[in-house]
Write a structure and sequence with these properties.
Oligomer: single chain
Number of helices: 12
CATH class of the largest domain: Alpha Beta
Strand order of the largest sheet: 2-1-3-4-5-11
Radius of gyration: 26 Å
Structural class: alpha/beta
Number of domains: 3
Order of helices and strands: HHHHEHEHEHEEHEHEHEHEEHEE
Length: 326
């Protein structure tokens, strides 16, 4: 039913009907209840698509992340969706599975839906991608992985946090380091900005440690490689992982070989994912408040719709959690 038909059947004007639909004053309570009862009886629903064409806004946001297998991203998406909903927006949640081509397909889909803003955890590597994004219309906010200096960014100082973790390990007397980051094997074809900044922080801090030795492991069989490496070690090494997921897997594999932390090796993760609350011994990690980042991303997009420009760069706080394993 059209609004014209509803107004005629209810015996009111279009202006009065608009006042009822938008909960505005100027209509008696009795008439308002009568009209709302009629709408409910006939199953009337607002046509949001038509409204978006008239108003020039869809009251929706899009968010593209790698996947939800890692609870790190699940926390961000959940917090983003809740904050967007509180601001009056629905969310389209898209998963690229770290595939640059799929990310661009999903981005085009969101643009075709005329969303009012997009949060993008990008896997695309290319010099022209930033300029392309800026020319699309709706505000686009990159998170975790920077895309280009021109594209607004929300994330963490991952360079500084990894330097802090490495310096802490050195202060505990460690000089032999294994650095675990399997995704770096894709650095030539995918956007690895976040992980490359962590790697640079590690390298710069290692360069200041007298007598330090380090080996980077960036292959899928990292657990097996570390197990074999520890069998040949003559002194207790420190294993620094760029995700808690890797640290937990390594810890499990080494336990199966009768190695114990911190007796035989030290290990630290990164992200502070929820499963660590049941991890024993307690894993040293870098805590990134990813849920707050999700909420802040939604707030920034909502404010952008009100005319406030997105910040060129905003870095959230991190915390080094010194626990049992290091």
């Amino acid at each position: 039913m059209t609004k014209k038909e509803i107004a005629r059947l209810c015996g009111i004007s279009r202006i009065t009907l608009d006042r009822v639909l938008n909960d505005r004053p100027g209509v008696s309570e009795a008439k308002r209840k009568e009209v709302l009862s009629f709408l409910e009886k006939h199953g009337y629903r607002e046509n949001r698509i038509a409204q978006s064409l008239v108003r020039g806004e869809s009251r929706s946001f899009g968010i593209i992340v790698f996947d939800l297998n890692n609870s790190f991203y699940a926390q961000m998406v959940n917090a983003f969706q809740q904050a967007a909903q509180e601001a009056g927006y629905v969310s389209y949640i898209m998963l690229s599975n770290k595939n640059p081509e799929m990310e661009q397909v999903l981005l085009e889909d969101l643009l075709a839906r005329q969303v009012d803003g997009i949060v993008l955890n990008s896997a695309v590597k290319g010099p022209d991608y930033g300029g392309y994004l800026l020319n699309q219309g709706p505000p686009i906010l990159s998170v975790m992985n920077r895309i280009s200096p021109e594209v607004p960014f929300l994330g963490f100082d991952e360079y500084a946090s990894m330097r802090e973790l490495t310096a802490y390990a050195a202060s505990q007397g460690f000089r032999r380091f294994y650095y675990v980051c399997p995704p770096l094997a894709r650095k030539e074809t995918s956007n690895m900005d976040s992980l490359l900044r962590r790697r640079q922080g590690f390298e710069d801090e290692i360069a200041l440690i007298s007598g330090a030795w380090e080996r980077t492991i960036d292959s899928p069989d990292f657990s097996m490689q570390l197990t074999e490496a520890l069998k040949a070690e003559s002194e207790r090494p420190c294993i620094l992982c760029t995700s808690d997921i890797y640290a937990v897997e390594i810890h499990r594999a080494l336990m199966n070989e009768k190695f114990e932390s911190p007796r035989d090796y030290a290990i630290a993760g990164y992200d502070n994912i929820p499963m660590l609350h049941s991890f024993s011994p307690r894993l040293t990690t870098v805590s990134l408040n990813i849920a707050e980042l999700g909420r802040e991303a939604a707030r920034l997009l909502a404010n952008a719709r009100k005319g406030q420009p997105l910040p060129k760069e905003r870095l959230m706080a991190h915390t080094l959690m010194k626990m049992d394993t290091l």
